[in-house]
Specification:
This is Sigma-70 family RNA polymerase sigma factor. This protein is mainly alpha-helical. It has helices spanning 9-20, 27-46, 49-65, 76-94, 117-128, 132-143, 148-155, 159-176.
Length: 190
């Protein structure tokens, strides 16, 4: 079961309110709810386990320090992913990478709930064929199942633009895989 599904959005917002009012220990519930997903998001963007761990840790530290700035106009998850996104972009800029992120792996992923090697290899091969923006859109929509509105809050791109880019990307992936049927679990309308 997905840890985030253990908490309804209302419960997450209640925990956020507790943290805002000084209950710093309540933040550990938020970390537990989002730790794996934030790490995997950072890992897929950075392509390096240690950098992803550091970026995820920085995300939670920044989230804690900035929690007073969170308002539930977007979900807490989208707000936290936006912080993670910016942390990963900072790491990439510091290393002066030009978003050549997904080369063949030199290390095994050491996450306890890791997907099968075949699935993992396929995901990494697929992602390595995309540019940085396409990877972010695909990760947030297909793997994290965010709405276009939530993605808009994370990526600072209009929802309508994201819909178009996602649909073009989805069609290209279906066509490029010669019969491979890539389908997102949810309809692309939102």
């Amino acid at each position: 079961m997905d840890d985030v599904n253990l908490f309804e959005e209302q419960s997450i917002n209640e925990i956020v309110d507790l943290v805002k009012h000084g209950d710093t220990e309540a933040y550990s519930f938020l970390i537990k709810a989002f730790q794996k997903k934030i790490y995997l998001y950072c890992y897929y963007l950075l392509g390096n386990q240690e950098e992803a761990e550091d970026a995820a840790q920085d995300t939670f530290i920044s989230g804690f320090n900035q929690i007073g700035q969170f308002f539930p106009t977007v979900s807490f998850a989208a707000w936290l992913y936006k912080i993670a996104h910016h942390r990963c972009m900072d790491v990439l800029k510091k290393k002066n990478r030009r978003f050549h992120l997904f080369k063949k792996y030199q290390q095994e992923l050491t996450v306890s709930d890791q997907p099968s090697d075949r699935y993992s290899d396929y995901i990494h091969e697929l992602l390595s064929s995309l540019n940085a923006e396409e990877r972010r859109i695909l990760l947030l929509r297909a793997l994290e199942e965010y709405s276009f509105e939530e993605m808009s809050a994370i990526l600072d791109i209009k929802p309508a633009t994201l819909r178009k880019k996602y649909e073009r990307l989805r069609k290209r992936l279906i066509k490029g895989k010669g019969g491979f049927h890539y389908e997102h679990a949810y309809k692309t309308n939102g």
